[in-house]
Design a protein that fits this description.
827 residues; alpha+beta; Beta-Lactamase; 4 domains; six-stranded antiparallel sheet; five-stranded antiparallel sheet; 22 helices; disordered N terminus; hydrolase; ANTAR; RNA binding; Transcription antitermination regulator; Bact_Sigma-Reg
């Protein structure tokens, strides 16, 4: 990019757009001019625009110079590294190596930077070199991504990015280098490097391509917030989004690039994830070639190394003394009263995590197999406890905590240990957390007797039960703590003896208490009874007492054991249930009577069939099927009547709702339409008047309807609809639904108009009008149900009556609603 030279003072350059104005130093060069009174100069819009243009050009030029300086510095680092490789291989000095590098570059027809990257790739043979080779091989056959370059430039870009990252003093410089050298040629526009905190939070350590305000808003992501970076961290895998907005996942840069694609890669080494690399594309992202994916993975591994070596930016992160912190953590674990192990990662020769080494077992360590803690100290976890890799998934939990830093705590986890090759299982509460590069594993085995005692205590509390034991020889009475609350007594007051229960019982229950005591104390049999206890605080409780005698060694009665239970809630529940049953029975009787009267009204007005209609040249048939449930009396209605003008009024409708309100609304609309039709108005006008009746003269009634007027002389049918399904025309072997005319349902608006149209019928034509109860299904779209109706309507039929019976018999409606069908056949 070329930038114009800066304009010197007092010199006009072509294209500046304003005349040159000399400064005070050049005042002598100004020719004599008439004296003009000095007035403050007010720049016009052109002057301001030109000044801004010159400043913008200057800023762009300076930016280019800074970028060129950065590129030159990073290129020099690669060249110096390649010279070091030549010195090591040829055993020559630095000057000789520089001369050798220049000669080799001239012979190969490459720049020294490209040759240096090639030499480093051959010498390193690391993940970066593998990604470069694969990218170069793939680039020959297929374009890897938008903006991909040649093989030599790929090697230069990746090695330059690596060199800049390893020599950078902070992660911000790493992010800028990755974007400029390695990711922009792939079409990416922004990159973010996240690091994980000790509390599993995410901090933005470096970014490029995002605005400063955007980066400030995403500086810290608290634990538990599901973002794109956290999904990659928790899943420990690469996450791809073709479009971030379509995925609905929040992340940095979603505003500037709402439809942009994302690739989010965990950055980890040795089984531990140090952070996350997030790459942003400006538009939707398609599948990436494998070579590009390998390149991105190599860049993520490079980020992991830099995050591991660069100091933490978060001030609240806790430093761990002693290298991996195992020594300090071991000292802290000895202060715990629960068994604990301090684990450190064990890596294989490739640097992959394969196991954990037990660096320390604390003083309260107890081995299930009875081994002393010295026998497991220093051993590998899977060797000392191979069952951890079994069904409990304990090893996977520890591995996940070490990788992500997210602690794991659970109650009553089954732990299995091998004792003489016999699996011994126990339940324990466990806690796993990462501290620096070490993992602290704490567990507490559940004591069976304590667990059973706790379960019994909870059961007595939930059941409002309290146990007691009374020694009849010494008079000592032992009460469960629940009984003090049950009797309304303080724990400092003495318990109540069985013989004193009558003094606390309702007078009407005295005989019940007497019989109970006689059975237990005299007959020495298990007894149980219920009574009303009058507490001294005025509260009446319903109590059930159960007791059994305990004989002594001499065969005499020594003690009585038993339990009291508060059954007040049960008693009042039974009383309430009895009252509810009575009210329910009365309500059911009233509902049955109401439904019976409603059905009588409906059947009186809407019989299932109607007598023949005296209309010359026209056969009219009607079918009405009420709802199967008596509680769902609906508002479906139909009408077919010969008007004074010898025309025939045909209509079907459906009032919203069920019950008496729907039935009475149906009667109002049906009778109103009959009266309005005598005026001779068309169907559109009739529906408009009927809408006014529904809106103003009824109590919030809404309904749908189809209205038609048939002229026998011209064989034409004029019809209109109000939010209803259109009629069906059967002509020959074809059946089709009529057009969907414009018209809202009745009662919705105070005033509205309805579109009407005319249909000329031919002899043999059949027109079907129906309500939605014929086709409506809960699991099927309406147009699919109408298509099924047309299929049935196409089937040949002997008569109109038979055709309507076929429609009802083969209807697949499952909404338990009324159904009306009106059929008209031209003879």
């Amino acid at each position: 990019m070329t930038t114009p030279p800066p304009a010197e003072s007092g010199v006009a350059h072509p294209g500046d757009g304003v005349p040159a104005v000399p400064d005070a130093a050049d005042a002598s060069a100004v020719p004599d001019t008439p004296a003009v009174p000095k007035t403050p100069a007010v720049p016009d819009a052109a002057d301001v625009s030109a000044a801004e243009g010159r400043l913008a050009a200057t800023v762009e030029r300076l930016r280019g110079e800074v970028r060129a300086a950065h590129a030159a510095a990073e290129g020099r680092a690669l060249i110096e590294l390649a010279k070091g490789v030549i010195v090591e291989r040829l055993g020559c000095g630095p000057t000789q190596a520089a001369r050798q590098l220049a000669e080799l570059a001239d012979r190969a027809g490459l720049s020294r930077l490209e040759l240096a990257a090639d030499i480093i790739n051959q010498a390193a043979r690391d993940r970066m070199a593998e990604a470069t080779d694969e990218f170069v091989r793939t680039a020959v056959g297929e374009p890897p991504a938008t903006g991909a370059s040649t093989g030599a430039s790929v090697a230069v870009r990746l090695r330059t990015a690596e060199s800049a990252a390893l020599s950078a003093g902070d992660t911000q410089a790493v992010a800028e280098s990755l974007l400029r050298h390695a990711l922009e040629p792939l079409g990416a526009v922004a990159v973010a490097i996240w690091t994980t905190g000790p509390d599993t939070s995410l901090s933005l350590r470096g970014h490029a391509g995002f605005g400063l305000d955007e980066a400030a808003r995403w500086h810290h992501v608290p634990p538990g917030v599901t973002t794109a970076a956290r999904q990659a961290l928790v899943g420990r895998r690469t996450v791809r989004y073709a479009s971030l907005s379509a995925a609905g996942i929040p992340s940095i840069g979603r505003g500037p690039h709402p439809d942009g694609g994302r690739v989010v890669v965990p950055a980890g080494t040795g089984g531990r994830i140090h952070g996350v690399l997030e790459i942003c594309w400006p538009g939707p992202l398609g599948p990436l070639p494998q070579a590009v994916e390998r390149q991105i993975e190599a860049l993520a591994e490079l980020c992991a190394h830099t995050l591991e070596t660069l100091p933490e930016a978060s001030p609240d992160s806790l430093p761990v003394p002693g290298g991996d912190g195992a020594t300090t953590l071991a000292e802290l674990s000895d202060g715990l009263y629960d068994p604990a192990l301090v684990l450190t990662p064990h890596l294989d020769e490739t640097g992959a995590l394969v196991d954990f080494r037990i660096r320390h077992a604390n003083a309260h360590f107890q081995d299930p197999a009875g081994r002393p803690r010295g026998s497991v100290d220093g051993a590998l976890l899977l060797e000392a406890y191979p069952a951890t890799a079994g069904g409990s998934e304990l090893f996977e939990r520890i591995e996940r905590v070490y990788a992500t830093g997210e602690p794991f705590r659970a109650r009553r986890v089954r732990l299995t240990a091998l004792v003489d090759q016999v699996p011994l299982a126990s339940l324990a509460d466990i806690s796993i957390s990462r501290h620096g590069a070490s993992v602290l594993f704490i567990w507490r085995v559940e004591d069976e007797s304590a667990r059973l005692a706790s379960l019994l205590q909870h059961a007595q509390r939930l059941g409002r039960v309290g146990a007691f034991e009374e020694d009849l020889l010494t008079g000592d009475i032992t009460w469960h703590g629940q009984l003090y609350e049950l009797f309304g007594r303080s724990t400092t007051e003495p318990p109540v003896a069985l013989r004193d229960l009558a003094g606390l019982a309702h007078p009407d229950d005295a005989d019940t208490i007497r019989r109970f005591l006689q059975k237990v104390l005299e007959q020495r049999r298990v007894g149980s009874t219920a009574f009303r206890m009058l507490r001294h605080d005025g509260v009446t409780r319903h109590i059930r007492v159960t007791a059994e005698p305990a004989p002594g060694s001499d065969g005499g009665l020594q003690a009585v054991r038993g339990a009291y239970q508060d059954i007040s809630a049960q008693h009042w529940t039974e009383v309430a249930l009895t009252a509810t049953r009575d009210r329910l029975a009365a309500t059911e009787e009233a509902a049955e009577e109401r439904n019976r009267l409603t059905l009588q009204l409906q059947h009186a007005i809407m019989p299932p069939a109607m007598p023949p209609l005296d209309a010359p040249g026209l056969d009219v048939a009607v079918r009405y099927r009420p709802a199967e449930s008596d509680s769902l009396v609906g508002g479906d209605w139909y009408d077919a009547v010969v008007l004074p003008s010898k025309k025939v009024l045909l209509c079907v409708g459906d009032v919203a709702g069920h019950g008496v309100e729907a039935a009475t609304g149906m009667v109002v609309l049906r009778n109103a339409l009959r009266g309005l039709a005598v005026t001779g108005a068309g169907p559109g006008q009739l529906l408009s008047w009927l809408n006014g009746v529904a809106h103003h003269l009824t109590a919030h009634v809404t309904a749908t309807a189809v209205c038609g007027v048939y002229d026998p002389e011209s064989r034409t049918l004029r019809w209109a609809r109000a939010g209803h399904l259109p009629p069906v025309l059967v002509r020959g072997e074809e059946a089709l639904d009529l057009p969907l005319l414009r018209g809202v349902l009745l009662g919705a608006l105070a005033e509205t108009e309805y579109e009407e149209t005319e249909l000329r019928l031919e002899p043999g034509d059949t027109v079907l009008m129906y309500t939605d109860g014929l086709v409506e299904r809960r699991d099927t779209a309406v147009h699919d149900s109408v298509a099924q109706l047309l299929t049935v309507a196409r089937q040949p039929s002997d008569s109109l009556e038979h055709r309507l019976d076929q429609l009802l018999a083969r209807s697949k409606s499952d909404t338990d609603d009324d159904t009306c069908v009106v059929g008209v056949q031209v003879l």
